[in-house]
Specification:
The longest helix has 19 residues. The protein has 12 helices and 10 strands. The chain is of the alpha/beta class and 338 residues long. The strands form 2 sheets. The protein has an 8-stranded mixed β-sheet, sandwiched between helices. The N and C termini lie far apart (54 Å). It has one domain: Rossmann fold, CATH 3.40.50.1820.
Amino acid sequence: MTTSEYCAPRTLREGRLNIFDNGPCAMQPVFRDYDQKALDDAYDQAVYAPNRDQLLERRNLASEAARRRLGEPQRFAYGAGSNEQLDVYASRTGTHVQVFVHGGAWRAGRAREYAAPAEMFVGAGAHYVALDFDNAPDCAGDLFVMADQVRRAIAWVYRNAALFGGDAEHIYVSGSSSGAHLAGVAAATDWQRFGMPATLVKGYTLCSGMYDLRGPRLSKRSAYIRFSDAMETELSPQRHVERIGAPIVLLYGSLETPEFQRQAREFAVALEGAGKTVELILAQGYNHFEIAETLGNPYGPMGRAVLAQMGLFIHPGSTRPELIRPGARGAPGAPSPT
């Protein structure tokens, strides 16, 4: 077998593309200009974010503290599956709804770990809904299952927003990392096929996501995601920009991996080229976990962007929600506040 034959992509019995070893293939390009190790590193956050463990622990501690201050969330089931539930942190002063889709490389994370941003949203007069859904080990690495769960959870929020004081006509969705991918799939959903209005979601804020699955499929992530041609095609939001109707804000950090930076930039170009409403925000000095942490900070890149998209902000020294005046800095259609 020649080196070129050995390095050609092969399909395993499970239907996944092979993971190249560190032998003759190690220095062969497998995707764009990446050899296998470089591509694997570009989809491994720990390589580019040495403070990952510290930030994840801080996230968990902040979420515990938020639950102590706000109280435990209302817990609702949106389906029959054991993970098909969601946490609602209700606001007493407003009706807007923010639905958050967590990340975790598709294989980790629970809604309970993402309670910290609830304080900002509740203070701004918005209900905060954190979704639970299967992680890869729960569904044999099937992203179709996870995407379907996220869609059904969003649809449940639309149908049942009144249960917690929300307004079904003011639903927004955000996500980070693999959660931004799943939220991006939701953005490219034809909601009318599910009996929902096409304008169900009024806007998406997607942070540090993956919007075309070719790169992830060729990386070591295929060791636990059951990629297929159908999955790569159907669940790559960038390939279906014609389906997207709601405004999208994309964020990424300057210290992200090169692939996560590229994914955001190229999705923005595709959206703009299709005439869609899109804003791209580069957060200087933030890595993958640092920028995600700012969802709970009204003055941080992600928190500021989400509140601006919803038309909400918090006055310094006050928790009273205010609506941003049309045309004001941070208002929809105004220059980016970040």
